[in-house]
Amino acid sequence: MAYPHSMRKVLRILNYTGIMNHLVLYEARWKQVLHRVFCVICQVIGILSLISHILSTTTRSRRFLPEFLQRMLEDTCFISYSFEYLNCKYRMDEFLEIVTRMENTFSSVDKTIVKNCHRTEINIYLSFSSLLGLALLGSIIETYLPISNEELAILERVYRRKYPENRLETNFWVPFDDSDPKYYHILFYFIIFLILRILVMSLCVAFLPVLITQITGQYKILNLYIRNIGADLDDNGLRKYFTNIERGEFIYADVSKKSKNIPHNNSPQETIKSNVVKLKRQVLYEKLYVRQIIRFHQRIIHFEERVFQFFKGMMVVKVIANNMLVALCLYQLTSPEAISKERLYKLFFEFLAFSMQYFYLCHCSELLDNCNINLRTAIIHSFWYKNRDLSTRRDLTLMILRAQKRNHVKFYKTFCIGHTYFINVLKYAVNFVNFVTLSRKNT
């Protein structure tokens, strides 16, 4: 049975909304062609919208600093999400290979652990989308609420609008007056379409935390088997011999009864030979059991390295963009200039969305590092000393040495994220706020 997860369903959602186009969703040929055309149109609209937004920020919004910082924040968010999406879109074969490997090789022996990982995966998708949705909803609500005459005058001066009371959710560079009623309503609902597209695109941001969550679940299953080293007798006096720990396959042997093949009145020499045979079998089983554990551990490590290799290309952009997002949001929230309650609401949820997504990624890195700590603890608290073979003990010692390394999410041997890294990001954000504030006071 394939390992249960929700990534296939998420990929189908991305295909139906035109963000991805790797799946054949329709049997009819003409429907497939229309879906490809729809995906291409959506991709072209997304690229042109991003370019237009950046042009608006660099040519018009720079006339007023708070407006410039707000639009710069949006540009950074769009660029970050676009890189996440493009990394998955143009390397979809590699991503599907990772998902297929997870389905075929991950152990689902412990149903409780698997269900908890699946539930956590769904909660990650819902949390990421909900937080970003609240921030984007603030952009829509803000356009319906009245603002002061001072802000209207600022918008008129910054964007050269004839009807400044006709406000859009965000601003794009267009060769005409976007506040003109002839174009305003079209642009308004077009931006809502882009907002919904960004909301669905945010599911791509959750792929790395979701995969790390599934990896930690595999480590938990592995620890259960490690703790059973040397302790394979149950309460009924039956010895459990595992033939495949990843699939949970085993056989029982009753060691409380004497074997029928051995006579009860055997000589001492025969008894010794029988005990020697049993001991050899037990030593052989201990070797095989530990080798199964090592093979399971190596499979998890290889999958982990494959995941990091896939996401390595866009992590530099992701780290820089998230650092900028946190700093820009924090500056606007603590800005001495008066801002409306509606914009404050939007900024608060933007800061909450970006910081919580970034923090959870750092938290997942810490959970991955804790897996090595728990693995060492499981070996220490197992009955490893009952293993009679020296090579088996040596294998366990090498496994402990491997688990002593740090297992944080690390890219290019430079970006090692975790709780400490996230605290440093907040410190840099505070330093940025202080620098900009003091610079404005001095000028």
From TrEMBL:
Could you list the residue ranges that cross the membrane? 33-55, 122-141, 186-212
Give the matching InterPro entries: 7tm6_olfct_rcpt
Query: Mind naming one GO cellular-component term on file for this protein?
Result: plasma membrane
Q: Which GO terms fall under biological process for this protein?
A: signal transduction
Cellular location of this protein? Answer: Cell membrane
A Pfam family that this protein carries is 7tm_6
Q: Which controlled-vocabulary keywords does the entry list? A: Cell membrane, Membrane, Olfaction, Receptor, Sensory transduction, Transducer, Transmembrane, Transmembrane helix
Q: Please list the GO terms describing molecular function.
A: odorant binding; olfactory receptor activity
Q: How does it sit in the membrane?
A: Multi-pass membrane protein
The record's family statement is: Belongs to the insect chemoreceptor superfamily. Heteromeric odorant receptor channel (TC 1.A.69) family.
- What PANTHER family does this protein map onto? ODORANT RECEPTOR, ODORANT RECEPTOR 19A-RELATED
Listed name of the protein: Odorant receptor
Origin species: Diaphorina citri
Source taxonomy lineage? Eukaryota, Metazoa, Ecdysozoa, Arthropoda, Hexapoda
